[in-house]
Amino acid sequence: ILNVEQSPQSLHVQEGDSTNFTCSFPSSNFYALHWYRWETAKSPEALFVMTLNGDEKKKGRISATLNTKEGYSYLYIKGSQPEDSATYLCAPYSGYSTLTFGKGTMLLVSP
Amino acid sequence: KAGVTQTPRYLIKTRGQQVTLSCSPISGHRSVSWYQQTPGQGLQFLFEYFSETQRNKGNFPGRFSGRQFSNSRSEMNVSTLELGDSALYLCASSASGTGGDFYNEQFFGPGTRLTVL
Predict the structure, then answer these.
(1) Which of B33, B103, B108 sits opposite A43 (nearest CB)?
(2) Residues in chain A within 8 Å Cβ distance of B3
(3) B21-49: pLDDT as tens digits
(4) Integer Cα distance of A65 and A48 in angstroms
């Protein structure tokens, strides 16, 4: 079982604030790192799949970076909006087993 | 393409009963995984089925079992329900293993909310 740590556990910001969260995972046997967004009353949805050290992905105001050598990924949200309120999950994939999800970072953006 | 569907969406059972949950994957996906989500615990992996065979298993007691049919639909069964089994059960399908996905991206259903009284 992989040890996946996400921090902070929860975050409350004001609309327009920029924020970032961290996902730490074992750097050995790394194959890919997934980020998911899980809005209340909906299903988790994939945001990014990251595979290469130094990878940077962007979708609108959300971006993510990956460091496979030290085993961490950062997720950034620029100018947070209330619709960004969700739980953000990361899940490393070792290539031969299944995804192991972290407990997530719960983001609340107030208007 | 239709998404992952799960039935029923809500279920109330009493301790000692058993329950069966159903999951229909995205057409063409042969991998189906099941997860349990309880407050403060995140998504806990139960098991994964691929082509009717259990390919991976999480750390859950034997009361939790599953199966997959030839059309890739999957069922999960929990016998002798306990209060602690109250949770949201999510299933997810993936094109992993079919050549359509190398990174095991999971597509989630809406979940079944199980309450054990």
Answers:
(1) B108
(2) 43
(3) 999 999 999 999 999 999 878 899 999 99
(4) 10
